[in-house]
Amino acid sequence: MQIGFPKCLVRFFENGQDLLDALHEEPFGTWPQLILLDLNMPVMDGFATLAGIKEHDTLKIIPTVMLTTSDNPGDVERCYHIGCNAYMTKPSSFDQLSGMFSLLQRYWVQVSRLPSTPVS
Fold this sequence. Notes:
CATH class: Alpha Beta
Helix content: 25-40%
Number of helices: 4
Order of helices and strands: HEHEHEH
């Protein structure tokens, strides 16, 4: 089954710590054009993972979108305070989720202009 990002390499990580470890590997390879995070990840939650990305001078320019089930206004505010670029609440149906991925792909991959590699 395919959803969103049809022309992009998509890598999945089991938890935030695995993502941060991969981002710090030398060489990482192709820098991500976009990072999608969930608040409720095991080992390291989305808040801590987002902070780890945004506190790092090289990684902080990678657009990071929180895609989660929480619609708690406090979670939204906290994520933006840490530095997320967008906060989206996951819809309940697959069709709506697929549409959301299409919107994400169009904006972050096709429309927005991003640096090819993070600047150190």
